[in-house]
Write the structure tokens for this entry.
Amino acid sequence: MSDDPDRPLQGRDEHEMGDEHDHYEDGDRDEHGHPDREHEHEQEGHEHDHGPTHDEHGHHAHDVEELGVAVATISSSRSLEDDPAGDAIVEAFEAEGHGLATRELLRDDYDGIQSAVGNFARREDVDVVVTTGGTGVTPDDVTVEAVSDLLEKELPGFGELFRRLSYDEIGTRVVGTRAIAGVVAGTPVFCLPGSENAARLGSEEVIVPEASHLAGLSRREEQGEDDEDREADHVTSPDE
């Protein structure tokens, strides 16, 4: 494997107001006709106790809480017993309560990488696929080419953010890393460089924080169809 070591508004307060006289209802005044501050505070406290909004709940409604991850180390020289980059990825997911579905070592071979990643993405027990290695610029670095041809949707923000974070560690050498991400068969796939530092950075700082949400969203249409099927199964005929 020939990769270089590749290595983060608030709106206006809803109680902010202009003319104090116009802000209060008649019932919110004391016996002297002045605004009833105690009542105002009670109202504000009540509003602030509502917790997360409906939109916030809905935004994460499809998140996959416990992910099954497939980790593929792409190298023609390493072994799974000597795979610090793969270890870093597994550790990052397991630290957040996710599980390892499968882990394999793949050679720097276009067809082999493409076939394996496609198979991982279609497995029922795999919610996210992460590869490490083969994202550099030498002739045998073909991970990006192999995976790109599988992508149904690209996630360009991943590569952009990863390179931004990597710049703080390796400076301009970041231009030599081609980390990418996208969706294959309804499963998010992330391709990281082969160094341990790069794998740890990408997993801990970018992939793991977003993987549950992305995994849920990428299969949202499929889940919706399953829900409709379940509802149809519960519909009874008039004779029942």
Summary: The longest strand covers residues 99-106. The mean pLDDT is 79. Residues 71 and 103 are 5 Å apart (CA to CA).
